Amino acid sequence: MAYEIPVTQARAELADLINRVVYGNERVVVTRHGKPLVALVSADDLRRLDELEEAEAIGAAAEETVISSVSSLGSSSTSGAGGERQRFGIAAEHRGPNVT
Q1: Residue 15 belongs to a domain with what CATH number?
Q2: The pLDDT of residue 43
Q3: pTM
Q4: Which of 21, 45, 56, 81 is spaced 20 to 30 Å from 2 by Cα?
């Protein structure tokens, strides 16, 4: 849980807030009119956030690569029944009992 403090009070207590973050392992949210404005977090927390964002970006890029690969398979010239018949040299096709 983060400690919330109005921006006007945070200005006056900045040194104390920094100590709370660094030595007390707290997170401080500075608010304006009751709405979160900024957060003070430790350098370790920031590093972990950066690593998390980087991992998410890598995951998103990998997912896009897979989607692109699968999409290109569906649009290749050998896709579908016609392409498979052509690829294997099959001239006839089974149409089932009700086809005339």
Answers
A1: 3.40.1620
A2: 94
A3: 0.55
A4: 56
Both tokens of 37, joined, read: 């404005």
* CA–CA distance, 75 with 69 (Å, rounded to integer): 10
Per-residue pLDDT tens for 25-50?
999 999 999 999 999 999 999 999 99
Pairing relationship of beta strands 3-6 and 28-32 according to DSSP bridges: parallel
| Phi and psi at residue 89, to the nearest 5° | 70, 30
Flag whether 57 is in a domain. yes
Residue 56, both tokens? 């998410």
Dihedrals phi, psi of 38, to nearest 5 degrees: -145, 170
**10 Å Cβ neighbour count for 5?**
19
Residue 58: CB partners within 8 Å, gap ≥ 6?
A: none
Domain membership of residue 96 (yes or no) is no
Nearest-angstrom CA–CA distance, 5 and 32: 9
